[in-house]
Amino acid sequence: MGQHTLPTRAEDRAAITAVVHRYAHTAREKMNFDDMLHLFEPTAFLVLPDGTSVGPAELSEVLQGEEARYIRHHITTVDMQFDGDDLAHSETFFLAITNEAAPDHWGHWRDVFAKRADGTWLIRERVIVVEGGAPDGWFSRMYLQKS
Questions:
Q1: Domains identified in the chain and CATH numbers
Q2: Residue 7 above 50 pLDDT?
């Protein structure tokens, strides 16, 4: 990587990381779905742990009021690879704590970010991969016990 690209990549990495952290802040009890929508492209989609693919605006319908009373996503690692000037792939590891279990579930988000003409980065697609969870936790109740 040439030295002249380092500041641009550093700014891009910071901007993408800010979106990741903002998502973690909005993905909690009494989710702020309106605030979350601003983090995604209009045609973006999420693939939920059960394989269901939804647009960000559909998340409230999928959860159907079954959010945990308390949930916090703790981000541990954000790794990014850039594909040209306006596309980035990231993998973010998380640990979620809820009122039902601590830890409740953990895993990673595989994201594709797109850079807009104004320089902001938005999520184009997010795949939520849960690697494990407490058998008596919210994730288990929401996704595993319904199967």
A1: 3-144 (3.10.450.50)
A2: yes
